[in-house]
Design brief:
The complex is a heterodimer.
Chain A (H helix, E strand, L loop, with lengths): L2 E5 L5 E5 L6 H6 L20 E4 L12 H7 L9 E3 L13 E3 L6
Parallel strand pairs in A: 1-5
Antiparallel strand pairs in A: 1-2, 3-4, 3-5
Chain B lengths: L8 E6 L8 E5 L2 E7 L5 E5 L13 E3 L2 E3 L6 E2 L5 E3 L13 E2 L1 E4 L2 E5 L15 H4 L4 E10 L3 H7 L6 H4 L15 E5 L2 E11 L3 H6 L6 E10 L3 E10 L13 E13 L2 E10 L5 H31 L12 H19 L15
Antiparallel strand pairs in B: 1-11, 2-3, 3-4, 4-9, 5-6, 6-7, 7-8, 10-11, 12-18, 13-14, 14-15, 15-16, 16-17, 17-18
Helix pairs in contact in B: 2-6
């Protein structure tokens, strides 16, 4: 299974085996990684599964579509490498992905 | 100040409410005086005398002209000043008039660029004119809520299971997921609830013996029209595959007038695939009246809380998908109009509903 690394704001890293076909959001929520709320359950509506993608991975991800871009506008501390983790589907190409969790999902 | 799409036809009021006397209306935050000329045409004019700004609706209709209630300045139905009592020279001032058109029992008004007002773009539902269907006009329900909150509600089949349990919904649908699809100027939100008890409305007016397969398609046509297509068929009759034999279908139509940013008017009517006598139609309207009053109570209570907590963020859940897309669509069209004043928001004349 692809391994995804979730890094908390304090630096603590969680390396999780995530089933291919599920989302980076699900990988965190189903494995007890703190810091991702996913209020809307993965419908690209709420922006509370915000992650900041490690720069080394930025080019390897699919582009942000209009919906994700509009929903990301709800995030207070959006960065140029911000993504919604519900929109990132895990497959073997994402094995080793590193995402940073924001201070809050407010 | 709220922003609105301007280049589109908005429902203003029921045709039955406009007569040869001055009526005061408000739409998109603007006051409009409306009357029917002796020839039957509907005139809509800015409700403001250019002299001292008295609302013209406080004046008198003289023939087909309005005489201001303060000094008698008179304006014909094109808004042209035709008389100033006590003087011979008449100012070249003109009161702004707005194009209107009547269809489906409603007066529609164009608040944008007059040269773009094409009556062919006025919304029409072909079933309204079809003798095999029966149409019943409802009320003009005034709701103290922004029309986009009402539109939220009309892009949202999920609330029906909880809000309208005596009429339009029941618990069978609580956990059935909702789908939506966005296309040009339109959002459809829907779900099928199969092999479930009929909703109270169809229990009452239908004669289904067992469970039904039922559909709820919410067609939102930007900015202020929602057509709710809902119906039931005997379970297993293949309704979801297109066989509507033995089914009952109703279009609950909502024509929303954005009065201003805190008020809207829901002009509702129902158009159904079966005929009924007058007392049944009245009873059906009464059921809709109960349901829409429930929505009004909720939307007004929400607005009061929104005004109390202007900076508080709302939690967003999955069923907010379509309402979120709806608001994005409205905003995008407002922005487009700001960049291109001749953009026309919507061609709504013949939407494909199914």
């Amino acid at each position: 299974m692809p391994k995804i690394t979730y890094v908390e704001p304090g630096g603590q890293a969680h390396v999780v085996d995530v089933t291919a076909g599920s989302s980076v959001m699900q990988g965190a929520v189903l494995n007890g990684v703190p810091g991702i709320d996913a209020d809307c359950g993965g419908a690209c509506v709420c922006s509370t599964c915000h992650v900041v993608v490690d720069r080394s991975w930025l080019q390897k991800l699919p582009a942000i579509d209009d919906d994700e871009d509009a929903t990301l506008e709800l995030v207070d501390d959006r960065e140029d490498n911000s993504r919604l983790s519900c929109q990132l589907t895990v497959d073997e190409h994402l094995d080793g992905l590193i995402v940073h969790l924001p201070e809050s999902q407010g | 100040m709220a922003n609105y799409i301007l280049n589109t036809w908005y429902p203003l009021t029921w045709s039955r409410s406009v007569s040869h006397e001055l009526g005061k209306h408000r739409i998109l935050g603007q006051d409009v005086v409306v009357y029917r000329t002796s020839g039957g045409a509907v005139t809509a004019m800015e409700d403001l005398c250019p002299h001292r700004f008295l609302p013209l609706s406080m004046g008198k209709l003289k023939g087909d002209s309005i005489e201001c209630g303060y000094h008698g300045m008179t304006f014909d139905c094109t808004g042209t000043c035709t008389r100033v009592p006590g003087q011979d020279i008449i100012p070249r001032t003109r009161v702004r008039t707005y194009p209107t058109h009547e269809n489906m029992g409603l007066v529609w008004i164009w608040m944008g660029d007059e040269s773009l007002a094409d009556p062919d773009l006025v919304f029409d539902l072909p079933q309204y004119h079809d003798p095999a269907w029966s149409s019943v006009e409802g009320d003009a329900l005034r709701i103290e809520a922004d029309y986009l909150s009402l539109a939220d509600n009309l892009c949202d089949p999920a609330h029906v299971s909880f809000v309208h349990q005596t009429t339009l919904g029941n618990v069978a649908s609580e956990d059935v997921p909702i789908e939506h699809e966005v296309s040009e100027n339109k959002i459809v939100t829907w779900r099928w609830i199969n092999d479930a008890p009929a909703i109270p409305l169809f229990e009452k007016y239908g004669n289904f013996e067992g469970n039904v397969d039922r559909w709820h398609y919410y067609h939102y046509l930007v900015p202020s029209i929602a057509i709710i297509d809902f119906g039931s068929a005997p379970t297993g009759s293949g309704a979801q595959d297109g066989n509507r034999e033995g089914s009952m279908q109703i279009y609950a139509c909502h024509f929303m007038t954005p009065v201003d940013e805190h008020t809207s008017i829901d002009h509702w009517m129902h158009i159904k695939s079966f005929s009924a006598d007058e007392s049944t139609n009245r009873a059906l309207s009464d059921d809709f009246r109960i349901a829409f009053q429930e929505d009004k109570d909720i939307l007004e209570a929400i607005q009061l809380n929104e005004l109390k907590h202007p900076n508080r963020k709302k939690v967003r859940i999955a069923i907010d998908g379509a309402p979120t897309q709806m608001r994005r669509m409205v905003k995008k069209l407002i922005d487009e109009e700001a960049n291109n004043p001749t953009a026309i928001a919507a061609n709504l004349s013949s939407p494909a509903l199914v």
